[in-house]
């Protein structure tokens, strides 16, 4: 299974690029799937290609974060930085 390549603090444009369709590079419609192996179920509205993309815990968290309208990198407050260090320590 393909793995997502975005980081927790990346702006939305990089998150979307990581989940973009590998066939036509169009933005995909995706839904997060929690479970023993978190993943994003991606479907391209342009060409119809479907695939699952493996996510890490921080990436699953990132998909649920509301973005800055200016598309700036996320400002991780002290609490989220501690969460990131904990997740990074597990990898």
Structural write-up:
The chain is an alpha+beta fold and 91 residues long. It has one domain. 31% of the residues lie in helices and 19% in strands. The chain has 3 helices and 4 strands. The protein has helices spanning 12-19, 57-63, 78-90, and strands spanning 2-3, 29-33, 39-43, 50-54. Strands 1-4-3-2 form a 4-stranded mixed beta sheet, with no helix packed on it. The chain is globular and about 40 Å long. The model has no long low-confidence stretch (mean pLDDT 81).
- Pattern of helices and strands: EHEEEHH
Number of beta-strand segments: 4
Q: What is the 3D form?
A: globular
> DSSP helix count?
3
Please give the share of residues in helix: 25-40%
């Amino acid at each position: 299974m393909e793995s997502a390549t975005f980081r927790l603090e990346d702006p939305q444009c990089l998150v979307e690029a990581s989940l973009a369709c590998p066939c036509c590079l169009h933005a995909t419609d995706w839904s997060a799937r929690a479970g023993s192996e978190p993943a994003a179920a991606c479907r391209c509205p342009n060409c119809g290609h479907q695939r699952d993309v493996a996510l890490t815990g921080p990436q699953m968290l990132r998909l649920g974060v509301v973005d800055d309208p200016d598309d700036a990198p996320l400002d991780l407050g002290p609490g989220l930085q501690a969460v990131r260090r904990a997740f990074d320590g597990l990898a």
